[in-house]
Structures are given as structure tokens and as C-alpha cells.
């Protein structure tokens, strides 16, 4: 589900999130482990200010494990708590309340000193659409709702939901807009499905993906589409032409591009990550 963002939506989303932030001790910033930096909201630092934050790299089941480890380390080095999880399969999810308790230890101790017996940590999930905020939230609070309010600008009465004895979450995630800083970031977000397919031409996004996989995950391509080493020496455009034919799409390059994007999102091209910690500064300039 992707939303098209306009300045009015952004202002409204920001205002809503800022209202909610006042009520919480801790922010759970959910990002996509395949595009950790590109899938962050560009103004989050400004929006949440000094609030403690945990970066949750979700969809780790789809991401390159070695790079996920690098990214977790990268965020930890920046002073954030960071954890990689797979919310869909509830993998490592139970570590979030534990990490939150550790992160908030001082505040909890202060409250206890004031006579509060079981101080509650109040938190909320924040992130751009489609990173898995609702899934993380629902799994953390053991709730089984397929669809949560996934539109910015919809207000309703808020509730606190229990994740553990001392950990509560706001019942709706904060939804913020994605980065539009560069073509490269746009490609990554489009390829993983974080921004609307309609915004991008699938042949351009597909060719971006093919080029990236040829350079970084050639074996996955070989296996999925029965390619040879020689095929992978071709120019990406020529390989797209060849794949279009061999996969039965004739000359409809768009359909092959669409297939490639679909296969990648489904995990049929193996686990992948589209950016590395050292590369991001160059990308955003
Ligand atoms: P959001 O609230 O941030 O917008 O995201 P949401 O939880 O709705 O999750 C978006 C999609 O990502 C969902 O797929 C969800 O099942 C999937 N997802 C969430 N967490 C994980 C994860 O850790 N691993 C994997 N592999 N998938 C995850 P969907 O319902 O099929 O929606 P869509 O395909 O229509 O986007």
C-alpha cells in the first residue's frame, strides 16, 4: 500500500506525529532492512528531537545478513539502540521490550525512587509506509488485526496496548513520508515497494534492479533465470532484452521488468540489501 505524498499531507502527518510523541518515552523507528537509510523519514531527527530512539531494521528475512549486521553496527555507532527483526515471523521480536527496558533503565530507576512500583515504558512505532510498522506493532502487542489505520490524516481516539508488563505501545503507528532526495533513493524505494509503482516507470526501476543484482548478486540472477556467466557480462539493457525473450514476454520489456521486481520482492532472487553504510553520504548529496 503506497501513498502519494503532497506538502499538505506531510504537514498534517508531521503535526499528528508530534502530538503523539509528547505522550511517549521511546520512539521505535521502523525501517526496511533492505534499504535502511533510504527508508528513513528525512526529518525524523528534527521531529522527535531528543527522545530516545530504537532503530528497528524490519524484514531482515529478505535482507542480506552480512549487510544487516553492518547496518545494526552503524546505527549503534551513531548512538542509537538498533535491532534487526522479522516481524512477519515474530523473529527476535521479544528482544524489543528487553532492549527498551535497558535503554530506559535510568528513567525507570528514577520513577522507582519516587515510589512508582512498576514504571511503564510508553513507546510508539514510526516510519514511512510499508516498512512493516503495523506488523511490528500488532506482533508486539499480540494483536491480530490485518489492517490498521494506514492513512495519514485519520484521527481517532488513542489507546495504549500492552506489549509486556512494563512496556506499552500507542495503538496506531506514526506514518511519515519517504525521502525524495535523489533518483537513487527513489529507485531503491520503488524496487522494494515502499513508494507507489505508479510514480515510477517499471522498466526504469526494473533495469535499476537488474543492474544492481548483476553487480552485487549475480549468482541469484543466474539461478532464478538460468543464466550463464557470459550472460552476466552483457550490458544490463541487453540482458533485459534477452530475459524478456527467454521468460516468454516477447518484446514487452515492461512485463519482464515487472516480473523481476515482483520476484525480488517475493524473495525469489534471494536476500538482498540495496545500500551499504559507507555509501550513503555520496547518495544523499
Ligand atoms: P506499514 O504499517 O509500515 O505500512 O507496513 P505493514 O505492517 O502493513 O507491512 C507491509 C508489508 O510488509 C505487508 O505485506 C507485511 O506483511 C510485510 N511485512 C511486514 N514485516 C515483514 C517482515 O519482517 N518480513 C517480510 N518478509 N514481510 C514483512 P502485505 O500484507 O503483503 O502487503 P503488501 O504486499 O500489499 O505491501
Name of the CATH superfamily of the largest domain:
P-loop containing nucleotide triphosphate hydrolases
Strand and helix order: HEHEHEHHEHEEEHHHHHHH
Radius of gyration: 20 Å
Separate helix tally:
13
In the CATH hierarchy, what is the architecture of the largest domain at level 2? 3-Layer(aba) Sandwich
Biggest beta-sheet profile: 7 strands, mixed
Mean pLDDT over the full residue set: 91
3D shape:
elongated
Q: What is the helix fraction of residues, given as a range?
A: 40-55%
Taking pLDDT < 50 over at least 5 consecutive residues as the criterion, the unreliable ranges are none
Looking at the structure, the CATH topology of the largest domain is Rossmann fold
Structural class: alpha/beta
Tally of individual domains: 2
InterPro entries: G_CP_dom, GTP-bd, GTP-bd_ortho_bundle_sf, GTP-bd_ribosome_bgen, GTPase_MTG1, P-loop_NTPase
Binding site for GTP: 58-61, 130-135, 174
Main location: cytoplasm
GO molecular function, one term: GTP binding
